[in-house]
Amino acid sequence: IETVPLEIERYLDECGLTKRVVCWPELRDLDWAGAAIAAECRKVTPNDLVGVTGAFAAIAETGTLVMASGEATPPAMSLLPETHIAVLRADRIVATMEDAFALLRAERAPWPRAVNLVSGPSRTADIEQTVTLGAHGPYRVHIIVVG
Predict the structure, then answer these.
(1) Separation between Cα atoms, residue 147 and residue 142, nearest integer Å
(2) Which residues contact residue 26 at a Cβ distance below 8 angstroms, ignoring those fewer than 6 apart?
(3) What beta strand segments (E) does the chain contain?
(4) Per-state percent for the chain, helix, strand, coil, to nearest 5
(5) Computed from CA positions of residues 60, 63, 69, 72, in that sequence, does the dihedral angle turn out positive or negative?
(6) pLDDT bucket at 3, cuts 50 / 70 / 90
(7) What phi and psi values does residue 7 have, to the nearest 5 degrees?
(8) What is the pLDDT of residue 53?
(9) Strand partners, 22
């Protein structure tokens, strides 16, 4: 996990994005300054362009992130910014959706208020059948898998 800020810096540079990010509390102590990233651990606002979160799990079958809300895991951090970067532990990747829900039942009692399933950038084709990215969430979703 120590290399996460450097991977995020590489991604932000590659995409030409700002190096100002907001992140979940569990990521607060990473070496952000060493990667030349200004990271803040606070409530996300509509002006924040990059949100960095963890993830409860991921589903291999569909390439879906499983995001479980909580005090330390606010869902807005993955939904409000234009770019969502998720840090995922490799041992949290399960085969199927049924496996993901079994993991939730085993580890989260009571259940979180919200469980969001993220399978890529927000998109819609509601208007004139033209695909639009970022209509109801991030334009970009980038996942960093750590050992």
Answers:
(1) 17
(2) 54, 72, 73
(3) 20-23, 38-40, 50-53, 57-59, 64-68, 83-89, 93-94, 115-118, 123-124, 132-133, 140-146
(4) 25, 30, 45
(5) positive
(6) very high
(7) -65, -40
(8) 98
(9) 40, 51
